[in-house]
Design brief:
The protein is an alpha+beta fold and about 150 residues long. The protein is built from 5 helices and 4 strands. Helix 1 (about 5-20) crosses helix 5. The relative contact order is 0.25.
C-alpha cells in the first residue's frame, strides 16, 4: 500500500490499534479539536464533521478502519465492565446520528455526541499501522472497551 497516510491519519490509526475510538478522540487525533477543548461545552461544527467524515471515508475506502456504533452484548449485572461489540454501519447513517446528537446537545439534552460514533481498526489497518516507523513502543492489539 502506498505510504500516503497523513500524520493525522497515522495518529488515529495508532489509537485504533489499541482500542475502540470514540468520536471525541477521532476529532482530537485528526487535529480538529484540541485537548482539553477551548470551551467546556465545545461541540463540533458542521465543517468539523465534514472534515472528519471525509477522512474517515478515505480510511474506510482503504480498508483500514470500520465506523459505526457500540452495542452491549448482554445485560449482565451492574458494577462490571459490560461486554460490547462494534457494529459497522454506512457512513451516512453514522453521520446522521452524529448530527442529531450534536443538535440535541446544543438544545441542552443529556445526549453525549462524543459517543455517537466509534471507529475501530480492521485487520488490514492493524497490519498497516504496525508498519509505521513511529509506532509507540508497547502498542499492542486492542484491549479495553473504548477510549473517551
Amino acid at each position: 500500500m502506498p505510504d500516503d497516510i497523513s500524520a493525522r491519519e497515522r495518529e488515529l490509526l495508532i489509537d485504533c490499534l489499541t482500542d475502540d475510538v470514540s468520536l471525541e478522540w477521532v476529532l482530537i487525533d485528526l487535529g480538529i479539536r484540541v485537548n482539553p477543548p477551548v470551551t467546556p461545552n465545545w461541540r463540533p461544527s458542521s465543517a468539523n464533521l465534514d472534515e472528519a467524515f471525509s477522512i474517515l471515508a478515505r480510511l474506510v475506502d482503504l480498508g483500514l478502519v470500520a465506523v459505526g456504533r457500540m452495542e452491549y452484548i448482554d445485560e449482565g449485572p451492574a458494577g462490571r465492565v459490560a461486554p460490547v461489540r462494534h457494529v459497522t454501519e454506512p457512513l451516512d447513517v453514522v453521520r446522521a446520528r452524529v448530527d442529531d446528537a450534536v443538535a440535541s446537545a446544543a438544545q441542552g439534552s443529556d445526549v453525549d455526541w462524543a459517543y455517537a460514533c466509534w471507529v475501530v481498526s480492521t485487520p488490514a489497518g492493524d497490519r498497516r499501522t504496525r508498519e509505521f516507523d513511529s509506532l509507540p513502543s508497547g502498542a499492542t492489539p486492542k484491549v479495553g472497551s473504548g477510549r473517551g
